[in-house]
Amino acid sequence: MPAPTEFLTYIDAKADIFIKRLADAVAIPSISGDAKHRNDVFAMADWLNAQLRQLGVDTQLVDLGRHKMDGEDLPLPPAILGRIGSDSSKKTVLIYGHFDVQPANKSDGWDTDPFTLVVDEKTGRLIGRGSSDDKGPILGWLNVLQYHHESKLPLPVNLVFCFEGMEESGSEGLDDLVRRESKKGGCFEGVDCVCISDNYWLNTRTPALTYGLRGLSYYKVTISGPARDLHSGVFGRTVHEPMTDLISLLSTLVSPQGDILIKGVDDMVPRADEEEKAIYAGLDYSIADVEESAGASIALSADKVSVLMGRMREPSLSIHGIEGAFSGAGAKTVIPAKVSGKFSIRLVPPQTPEAIDPLVIDHLEKAFAKLGSKNKLSVENLHGGKPWVADHRHWNFEAAKKATKAVYKQDPDLTREGGSIPVTLTFAESLGVNVLLLPMGRGDDGAHSTNEKLDRSNFIEGSKLLGTYLYELADIAKN
Ligand SMILES: NCC(=O)N[C@@H](Cc1c[nH]cn1)C(=O)O
Ligand SMILES: [Zn+2]
Ligand SMILES: [Zn+2]
Predict the structure, then answer these.
(1) CA-to-CA separations, 225 to 222, 321, 337, 343, 361, in angstroms, rounded
(2) How many structural domains comprise the chain?
(3) I need a surface site. Which of 103, 245, 267, 441 has the fewest CB within 10 A?
(4) Structural domain that includes position 131
(5) 433 lies in some domain
(6) 423 CA distance to ligand 2 centroid (A)?
(7) Do 229 and 318 fall within a single domain?
(8) Adjacent-strand bridge partners of 277
(9) Does 335 reside within a domain?
């Protein structure tokens, strides 16, 4: 059963209204990683909950308890669980998305206010934090619901929703909820497959289906010594300096070529054979794509296969920042008393945070001992998640392939994503069903970066894709 033509024309006709709704969503700065914005994440949950209810979805807000962030005790934003349809002759699809966003300040280098959606008429870009990650895709599902609600047409499948507000901060509390609701009598009982739209095409021209994600282990390494910040003229070359120790430690983690220098981490991963390399060689990708989306000619290699393997099937270590360091304007001559380096490792099978943690801690302790410093070292794992790989020959992927062909008139790339959505594996394991990642945005959307955007055509055609996928699933269920 193809998607009704009226559905496709409806999405086109309502495009401006849908973009206005995206602007309303972007205007709520639901930054989960910043305690000051916790109320905004709650406001975003209320906004989304109201939208779902208006469109006929039966929802509940689930309290996930409290957590500690940067020493502060905070309430966790609620998860939104919803259901529409309970026809036992139809497939039941679980849709996951997240309504929290990464931090964004104009001063980071944005050209416009990050929380005011700017519609660039010349380029067709919808610019704003969360436009692509992940408010645009969530609103894509709302667009599909709106057509069926207004046309008084039943959906071709039953839908179960699970939307969270902590994805960008380790999905705190969600794994337990998913496990609980997957049991007999839970909200997720009877789910046949899962669809997540929360990643990106590999390039700017070819739609993609994604069957793998890297896992993540995020660390905070703290060096402390002096009882207070010191004057470098008075104490320079007089005391062990925490910042000097920290920079030395961070420089032992990864080479400028991206090799992870922590013993055992890179070695855990089996090498790719020729058959696997051929998969990467066959993808529609070039060095120009990575350099275009990075905004500079800085690829680690001129070889496309090696660059793709670095992103999709090898671990990576990135250093993100230093808390406590002087970072303002001017030339403050301070010796900071306590500094914390933040870094994370993206994991691939068979790596897990549990297997990586001891290697990281041992490495940092040994490297610190070699410094002969009298300062103190502490290491924390802030959060983590395992990598995930799915069977892309499954009917769930088959339906998405057909839908892509119908909407975009081309076959999708089959990709593994370099990013992490830790709950993906929890869905796969708790429900025992196939999980599909069906990205809406392009490889140059700048998620987590400045000037994040979603192209208007990706929002509109992407909404058509999500709806068409549901019709293709229903078709498969009939045969
Ligand atoms: N679109 C998925 C995504 O961006 N996931 C984040 C998850 C994360 C974990 N810690 C902070 N963010 C990612 O960085 O991959
Ligand atoms: Zn996301
Ligand atoms: Zn993200």
Answers:
(1) 10, 20, 6, 21, 20
(2) 2
(3) 267
(4) 5-214+388-478
(5) yes
(6) 11
(7) yes
(8) none
(9) yes
Together in a domain, 224 and 193:
no
For residues 117 and 253, state if they share a domain: no
Q: Is the CB of 170 within 6 Å of ligand 1?
A: yes
**CB–CB of 452/127 below 8 Å?**
yes
Q: Which atom of ligand 1 is nearest to the CA of 167?
A: 7
* Residue 168 annotated as part of some ligand binding site: yes
3-class DSSP state of 60: strand
Q: Is 419 in the pocket of ligand 1 (CB under 6 A)?
A: yes
Q: What is the mean pLDDT of residues 283-287?
A: 94
54 and 195 inside one domain: yes
DSSP state of 233: H
- State if residue 133 touches ligand 1 by the CB under 6 angstroms criterion: yes
Structure tokens, 292: 């275009």
Tell how far the Cα of 72 is from the centroid of ligand 1, in angstroms: 22
Task: For residue 285, tell me if it sits in a domain.
Answer: no
Between β-strands 125-127 and 453-455, what pairing exists: parallel, antiparallel or unpaired? antiparallel
Ligand 1 site, residue 198, Cβ cutoff 6 A: yes
pTM of the predicted model as reported, rounded to 2 decimal places: 0.92
The residues near 186 (Cβ < 8 Å, ≥ 6 apart) are: 180
Nearest atom in ligand 1 to the alpha carbon of residue 346 is 15
Is residue 133 a known part of a binding site? yes
DSSP, collapsed to helix, strand or coil, labels residue 334 as strand
Q: Which atom of ligand 1 is nearest to the CA of 418?
A: 15
- The per-residue b/e assignment along 209-221, b for 16 or more CB within 10 angstroms, e otherwise, is bbbbbbbbbbbbb
Is-contact 65 76, C-beta < 8 A?
yes
Question: How do residues 60-99 score in pLDDT, each as one tens digit?
Answer: 999 999 999 988 999 999 999 999 999 999 999 999 999 9
pLDDT band at 306 (very low <50, low <70, confident <90, very high): very high
Residues in the chain: 479
User: Is there a single domain that holds both residue 329 and residue 464?
Assistant: no
Give 328: exposed, middle or buried? Use CB within 10 Å, 0-12, 13-18, 19+. Answer: exposed
Residue at 423: amino acid letter: V
198 known member of a binding site: yes
SS3 244: helix
User: Which residues have a catalytic role annotated?
Assistant: 100, 167
Q: Helix (H) and strand (E) counts for the chain?
A: 14, 20
Q: Within this chain, do residues 364 and 330 fall inside the same structural domain, yes or no?
A: yes
Are residue 445 and residue 467 in the same domain, yes or no? yes
Give the ipTM: 0.94
Q: Is 231 annotated as a binding residue?
A: yes
Do 141 and 246 share a domain, yes or no?
A: no
